[in-house]
Specification:
The protein is built from 16 helices and 13 strands. The protein has 457 residues and is an alpha/beta fold. Strands 1-2-3-4-5-7-10-11 form an 8-stranded parallel beta barrel, surrounded by 5 helices. It has a 3-stranded mixed sheet with strand order 6-8-9. Strands 12-13 form a two-stranded antiparallel ribbon. Bound molecules: 4-nitrophenyl beta-D-glucopyranoside (PNW).
Length: 457
């Protein structure tokens, strides 16, 4: 049985603008909501850490791309800072902002690395926040303009695009639970309206990327949408447990904003989850009218997989949560290590949505720091990588079309409200000097890629 990864597999690492770039006022850029809260309500962030400098990638991207190249990846997923492209509420594009991303893309391509571009990774421009953010009725059109401007400049070179990263986080945590910028606790109805607006924005941006890229070249773009990989894994491989886990994965749950189907059913199935009108019809009755028409086809589904809930079949119906094995490993951020999510996750999502799957993020936070010899040993991340990728290879071997894997993250970086405490990188960053030290996991990942996964076995 051939369990190695396909030769044409996409191997990458991922980052996002706010978490690594810094240079928040450089090249005509203005503040995003995260820059604003770091500045004016620093107590919202652990240790009052600020993203204003982050890893200074804005000035050091060339060194970072060299490190990326040494790992041997063939793809790099990064995001574009909207405030660099449109620093103000006016339709004038800041070409200096586009210049930066153009250099980044060209430097990737020169190193044989395909750029995978995310348009929105949570850093809403402050000017739009002051105008209501995703609740502004024009937000989808404004996002479409942003997408057009970027695609006009980069569309002849960038093939893979992702409109949004994890709406669960920026709507659920940002607008409803008050844990992420702008730290709002809106009524459910308003947060659901924001979710509808994001789906509409995805639709408009998808159309714009296709149109603007087509006019600049003959490149056939592929456009995706990235979700939090919410997965329930079955306690056993028994049919009843598997069926219960699969069903549970797509339920709206206690908080519909934290589900996957709220966003993915409209985008990939052209309908809203059945539960929605039944359970939340009183809150927002006109779902369908707010979203339709959805006519654009989305080419791939990005899954960010970190952990999972373990379930078994309930006594009568549905799923029941089962306890984790005693002493089960958790990462620094508190998420349980559940490698099986890499087997069941893509499988369940493919069965429901029938589009190619990309693992757009997977990784872990650890207490990494340099050893006496100056090297950074991260045996837990090495074991994590091995376990998770073994499961992924099993999934691909079963015929699920998983076409790529991006490790989160290339570098240690600004972990949102957790500041710099959580280190997710393959590369260690000393924030006082901005020195980079590739960790042991970076070299393990390099061997995995070089052998198409053979070293895992
Ligand atoms: C992702 N969860 O967020 C984000 O896309 C990254 O920006 C972030 O740095 C990374 O994962 C690590 O946190 C998530 O609760 C936030 O399951 C929360 C969850 C998952 C992903």
């Amino acid at each position: 049985m051939n369990r190695v990864f396909p030769k044409q597999f996409t191997w990458g690492a991922a980052t996002s603008a706010c978490q690594i770039e810094g240079g928040v006022l450089a090249g005509g850029r203005t503040f995003s909501i995260w820059d604003h809260y770091c500045q004016w309500q620093p107590e919202k962030i652990l240790n009052e850490d600020s993203c204003h400098e982050a890893t200074d990638h804005f000035h050091r991207f060339s060194e970072d791309l060299d490190l990326l190249q040494q790992i041997g990846v063939n793809a790099y997923r990064f995001s574009i800072s909207w405030s660099r492209i449109f620093p103000n509420f006016c339709p004038t594009v800041n070409s200096e902002g586009l210049d930066f991303y153009e250099r980044l893309v060209d430097e990737c391509l020169r190193r044989g690395i395909q750029p995978w571009v995310t348009l929105y990774h949570w850093d809403l421009p402050l000017w739009l926040h002051y105008r209501g953010g995703w609740l502004n009725p024009s937000a989808p059109e404004l996002f479409q303009e942003f997408a057009s401007a970027v695609a006009k400049r980069l569309g002849d070179r960038v093939i893979h695009w992702m409109t949004f990263n994890e709406p669960q986080c920026f709507i659920g945590k940002g607008l409803y639970e008050g844990e992420h910028a702008p730290f709002f606790r809106l009524p459910l109805r308003d947060a659901l309206l924001a979710a509808m607006s994001v789906i509409r924005a995805h639709e408009l941006a998808t159309e714009a990327i296709r149109r603007c890229s087509a006019s600049s070249s003959g490149v056939k773009v592929k456009i995706g949408f990235v979700t939090v990989g919410i997965v329930s894994v079955p306690a056993t491989e028994g049919e009843a447990d598997v069926a219960a886990a699969e069903e549970d994965t797509f339920l709206l749950g206690e908080n519909p904003l934290w589900s996957a189907s709220l966003y993915l059913d409209p985008i990939f199935l052209g309908r809203i989850p059945e539960e929605l009108p039944q359970r939340f019809g009183n809150v927002l009755p006109d779902w369908i009218e707010r979203m339709l028409p959805l006519t654009q086809c989305t080419d791939f589904l990005g899954l960010n997989l970190y952990t999972a809930k373990r379930v078994c079949a309930g006594k009568e119906r549905g799923a029941m949560k089962v306890l984790s094995p005693p002493g089960s490993a958790t990462t620094n951020i508190g998420w349980e290590v559940v490698p099986e999510c890499m087997y069941w996750g893509p499988k369940f999502y493919y069965q429901r949505y029938k589009v190619p799957i990309i693992i757009t993020e997977n990784g872990m936070a650890a207490h990494d720091w340099p050893s006496v010899d100056g090297k950074v040993y991260d045996p837990q991340r090495v074991a994590f990588l091995r376990e998770y990728l073994l499961q992924l290879s099993g999934c691909i071997n079963d015929g699920v079309p998983v076409e790529g894997y991006f490790h989160w993250s290339l570098l240690d970086n600004f972990e949102w409200a957790m500041g710099y405490r959580m280190r997710f990188g393959l590369i260690y960053v000393d924030y006082s000097t901005q020195k980079r030290i590739p960790k042991e996991s970076a070299s393990f990942y390099r061997q995995i890629i070089a052998t198409s996964g053979e070293v895992l076995f």
